[in-house]
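Limitations

Structures in this collection are predictions, not experimental determinations, and the ligand pose is part of the prediction. Treat each record accordingly. The example that follows, with nicotinamide-adenine-dinucleotide as the small molecule, is included so readers can see exactly what is and is not provided: the inputs are given verbatim, and the output is the predicted complex.
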Amino acid sequence: MGLPLAVEFARAGFVTTGVDLDARKIDTLNRGESYIPDVPTADVAQFHQAGRLRATTDPSVIASFDTINICVPTPLRKTKDPDLSYVVSAVEMIAKHLQPGQLVVLESTTYPGTTDEVVKPILERGGLVAGRDFFLAFSPERVDPGNQTWTTKNVPKVVGGTTPDCTRLATLLYSASIDRVVEVSSPKVAEMVKLLENTFRAVNIGLVNELALMCDRLGISVWEVVDAAATKPFGFMPFYPGPGLGGHCIPIDPFYLSWKVKEVGFEARFIELAGHVNGAMPHHVVDKIADALNSRSKSVRNSKILILGIAYKRDIDDIRESPALDVMAVLKQRGGQLSYHDPYAPHLAARDWPAGVDMASVPLTTQALAAADCVVIITDHKTFNHQEILTHAPLIVDTRNALKGSWPHVFKLGAP
Ligand SMILES: NC(=O)c1ccc[n+]([C@@H]2O[C@H](COP(=O)([O-])OP(=O)(O)OC[C@H]3O[C@@H](n4cnc5c(N)ncnc54)[C@H](O)[C@@H]3O)[C@@H](O)[C@H]2O)c1
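Predicted complex:
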């Protein structure tokens, strides 16, 4: 999230510096290259050459900046409690170099209260006061990786400062490079806005995933139902079922909110329920695969299962929290002989998934399709040739309704 923002600042004419602990990213940027598909290398090269985009691992440069945006990870611990360690260490690093007049904006998704209760006290340790000596605000990242229509530049930026001056200054910064800025009354409100947005998605995906399971039992296609319901011009918004949630946001962020409200004796029931339903989807996919193999008098054990797409969504290279990894781990545990193809994820490192073995993407050939006992579409990248899959794979489980229509050898999630 930091790089797309840095590029927009550089485009607007600011002299922008990326500070990261990861020396490989820094070296890549300093060679004038991008390291994520959403940011073209041409942009990085242009701004790097013009001296408006630099990168360093040296935090002491922080003292020379007018503004500092924090875009570090906010994962969950295994217990599903927020892990603010990255935020805390980044803020401690900034605190050491904080200068009067600087603006600090937290962008990492987090629970309401983080900016005022966690970030502010650390920054004020040296004696400078937020709103008086330096400026502090929260402004959530809203980028949708892989989305060509809605980008960092044209997605409105919500901003809430610790004081009205803090909000105003952050608004001035963003308005130079982002089309629209929406001011709210406090960092807490801005933090909650982001959690509402992501909880809205998690809950609606949970609802439609549950509907898919109902449709499975009732012999109805959930895909046909959602598409027909989506013709209603008001009061309905289509969400589609799938193999489970993935990425750094939707499976994680709502639990920041449910954790926080526990402090005030409140139980966030929708969030927990959606978490249960969405978290169980990979197991339903495995059941579907077992059913499909069963129809051919085969078991998961010793069957050759080819997984198509392991990224958490279409046309991106991010495998964090991807449901494909859960599906694969369960299949492996049950003795399936796994292979996968994903043009965006050529390697799957042992440390990145529960089964803990290194794997490499196999080429998607007609022979590979024909040799599999079951081909499973988990993530329907645009590069997949549906006709070829339909023609050569003897048995298919399609979790995304990638293959429109129905065939005797295709088993779909949420459809007869
Ligand atoms: N990826 C998304 O789609 C998305 C969308 C909206 C919001 N967000 C939120 O944005 C935040 C960042 O997500 P991301 O996907 O960009 O994460 P990321 O892991 O891709 O990038 C974070 C970077 O921070 C660096 N870092 C960690 N600690 C540091 C420190 N102390 N000092 C300097 N650098 C440090 C890491 O090395 C890494 O390069 C998270 O809170 C996430 O929830 C992400």
